[in-house]
Every structure is written in structure tokens, then in C-alpha cells.
Amino acid sequence: MDDTPAVELEDVSFTYAGSPAVHGVTLRIERGDFTAIVGPNGSGKSTLLKIILGLIKPDNGQVRVFGTDIERFKDWRRIGYVPQVATGIHAMFPITVSEVVAHGRYSGFSPFDFWRRGNGADVDGVLQMVDMADFKRRRIGELSTGQQQRALIARALIRKPELLVMDEPIAGVDVQGGEELYMLLRQLRAQGVTILIISHDVGAVMREAGTVACMNCTLLCHCPPQELTEDDLVRLYGFPVEVLHHGRHHDHHAHGEEAVRHDEFDQVTPHVHRH
Amino acid sequence: MPAILQYEFMIRALIGGLLVGALAPVLGTFLVLRRFSLLSDTLAHVALLGVAVGFAVNVYPTLTTFIAVTIAAVVMEVLRSRGRLPGDAVLAVALYSSLAAAVVVISAAQGFNVDLLGFLFGSILTITELDLWLLAGLAVFVVIGVTAFFTELAQASFDDSLARVSGIKVDWVNLGLAVLAAATITLAMRIMGVLLVGALIVIPVLVGQGVTNSLRTAFIVASLVGMFSAVTGLTIAFYQDIPGGGAIVLVAVAMLGVSMAWRRLRRRSS
Questions:
Q1: pLDDT tens for residues A62-90?
Q2: A102 Cβ partners below 8 Å, 6+ apart?
Q3: ipTM value > 0.95
Q4: What is the pTM of this model?
Q5: Any CB–CB contact under 8 A between B159 and chain A?
Q6: Is the CB of A81 less than 8 angstroms away from the CB of B214?
């Protein structure tokens, strides 16, 4: 098996409007790993994701995806991307869920795509995976945020990606939806899919991810969640935090006495609490 | 045979109207979806500069217009995509600067004449056989181009980043769309007039958006509405002796009103 890392960053920096958004980040994400990027708002997480995907050109450093410099990367079929929000998702944009998902099949110039209907068996299959089969003919802009997010996840999954990149996939999703998404990600990881997500849900990340990358303009740490210390989180967020684990029992106590472990926090929305 | 079909200029106008009615919303669909509807209006004002230059230097105005509009479309797209200026500011600067330049050129060429007024407000009398051949050629080109690149155009309109990560060359798709919009506006303005051509690019698209959830169906509906508006408007213009461009736009607006009422009724009943 090819042991080239899925994603490799070397000393990557990017300055936005005179301020460093990402500074000197070196990061290696192995194939099959589940890496979560965590950090406070404005810490450069989304910028880093866009640099990895080639949407932003860094000022310095090198980005390689599956061993290829991202500027020369052409094998986009191997990557599934779920943005936090798509600009075309609004009530006046006439596009059905199945059309959005079918667009995920794109793999290069195909002049007869116009005549292909957006409801093939593969579309139905991925919509069932994300529990959206009943919404396939609905206009995506008229659905709830969580449903829109699931449709975008289905769009990414139809590509059968080797690398799945998600920008805050559970933003706007209820607790049950979040649990279902993580269950799906566990299945994908078991199939060997490399997963890279941005998340504010530190509790779920500690539970689910194989490695955690703490970003605050620079990469503060990149390690398995068990090795993440309370000091790391204080350095990351700038104040003492407690991690709320919810939905499932978990034995991990990364934060000593401050770590909260129980099921009663199902309804708690903020996952990082200031003391 | 109805009186309208006994005049050669009306047959040319109807054929031209059908072609423009089909073409304008095809490109308009992708402009409106990007919330870039005013591009057509801006390019139409640039077209006025092209017409004025054509008259001033005594060259076939359609040619000078096409050159002016294409250059403007490409420059605006480059400025917009590189984020040098906000999209609406780019449109405003292009609109006012081209209008100002057109006024200066027209003044230097000793003011308006009848032909120039025809370009401004549209004239079914001025459509030549050459115009029709150019329109037909453009129609074939646009239909093939849009059908071939429908997925690319749709994805680039839906979300720029998603399209890029799917491997779509979004910059080239946007540039191609801008050039096709420039060509369509150049030829459509002979019938619609510089001041109204943007309406046929935008209004039928809004009808299509309102009556269906599917992008593919909305695209086809918009084109059918454009054709219906053109033929009905020209027919009314012929019998009521009113400008064709104005009649076409008013028919399209009426259809938009009907579609909005129908959508509201459908929502209430569901």
C-alpha cells in the first residue's frame, strides 16, 4: 500500500489584510486517519482547510495532497469536500437535493450530463446513507440547515472519496444529527477513508478523532486526543476550559477533574466552556 | 395568412425574436443564479458605446459593439474574480464610464440620428438578414456550449469552492459565460434595444425559478417564457403600433406576475 501521506504541509503561511492568518504550519495527515482541527474563532482553521484544498494559495510553504503539489493536483475525484455553507443555498436558487448530489459525480468534461437525470441509484444510495431519501425532489434552499448539510455530505460521499474534508459539519445540526454523522464517519474510517474536519465540538472530537490539530494561527499541537493536556487547551483557547462529552459514555479524562463525563449534557450546545 | 406574416420585416422580426427569446434566458439563468443580474444591464450600456463608435468611424455597428462588450465583459470578470473591487462596484464603474464615453462619442459624431435611436429602444424594422444569420449562428453555438458545459456552469453558479474542489476550471467557465453573454447582448439589442435587452435576460429566468424546484427544468422554462414573450410582444407591437422591445418586456413582466400568483396559490394549497 502506498504510504504517501494524504495531506502534507511544510512551513505554510498565509497573511490576510496584513495580519498572519496561518503561520509556519507543518502538518502530516496519514492515510486512513481521522484528524480534527480545533481552535477558537478566527484562528485560521478554515483558511488552513482552503489552503489544503488549493482554494487559497499560501504566501510560503508547500502543500501536497496524496504526494502531489496541490497546484498540480488533478485527481479531484479522490477528494470529497463539505463546506460550512454553499453560496447557492438560498430559497431562490432552483436546485433539488438530488441535483446537488448528482453534481458530486463530476469527474471531468462530460457533454451529455445535461440530459442525465439527477436520480440515479447511486444518488438514492447516498441519500439513504444520510437519511435524506424523502427530500430528494425538494429545493435545497428551502430545507433546514441540518438537512442542507446532510445533502452536501451526500454530495461528497457519491464521489467515493479517499479524503473527506469537512468544515464544521455539525454546525446547525442537532445532537442526534451530530451523533448520526459521527457514526457515518466511523463507518467511512473503517473503510479506509481519510477524514479531516474542522470542529468546535471538542468533546466529540476527543471521542472520535484519531488525531487532533490545535490551531491558533500557528499549529500548537498535533497529537492523539489522549495526549492532549489541559495546558494545551488553555494555550489554544486562552482560558481554562472543560470538555463536555455527550451522547455516549467515554472513559477518556483528558482534563483531570475538569473533564465532564456523562450523558446529561445532550442538550448543551456550546462544547467549550469558559470557567 | 395573418397580416403579420405578410410582411417580410415582421417575419424577420419574429424569427429574430424567437432566437433572442430562447438565447437570452439561457445565459441569464447562470447570471441570475450568481446574483449577477445587473451584468446584462451594464453590458447593454457598454453596447451603446460600441454602437456610437461604429457610427462615428463608419464601421458595421454590430462588430464594434461586439468588440466593446466582449472586452468589457472580460475585464469585469477578471476584476470581480480577483477581488480587486466588489462585484457591484465593478458593474457601476463599467456602466457609468461606458455611458459617459458613449455620450462624448455621440456628441463628437454630431448627435443622435434615427439609426442610433433604433439601437437604444429596439426596432423591428432594422433587423437585417445578416443579423438573423448571426443570431442563428450564435444560437447554435450557445446551445451546444451550454448543453456541453451545463454541469460546469451549474456547479460554478452553485458554489465556487465546491466547483473548484470538483476539478472544474471555474475561471474559464466564468470567462466563457461572460463572452457568450456579450455576444447575446450585442445581437439581442437590435430587437430589444440597449435599454431593455437586460430585461429579457433576467425576467424569464425569475419565472423559471419560481415555478419549479429543478435547475434543469427552470432553465428550460425560462427559455420557453423568453420565446413566448418575444413572439407575443412582437405581435402586439405590430397590431398596436408600439415599440417591440417594450411590448416584449411587458409580456414577460405579466408572466412573472402570473407565476408569482400561481406560486403563492400553490403554497397556500399545500
A1: 999 999 999 999 999 999 999 988 888 88
A2: A116, A118, A119, A120, A123, A158
A3: no
A4: 0.83
A5: yes
A6: no
